[in-house]
Amino acid sequence: MSIEQITQATDELGGGRARFDIDADLRVYLAKTDWYVIRELETGTPVPEEIKANRERVRAMIETPLPLPF
């Protein structure tokens, strides 16, 4: 799923998506690409520039804080 698809303002039914839901999906994108960063740290194989740029862009787009783990 592309970043543009994640940040769409409407859901499958045409209704508005909550900012929290959009941010949750953006965090999933970061989690799915974490392995690139780990690979770079462990083996020295660089993270592709496109992934680096997308991760930076996604981090800047997240507006809501993580919920507390209670």
Automatic annotation (TrEMBL):
<protein>
    <submittedName>
        <fullName>Uncharacterized protein</fullName>
    </submittedName>
</protein>
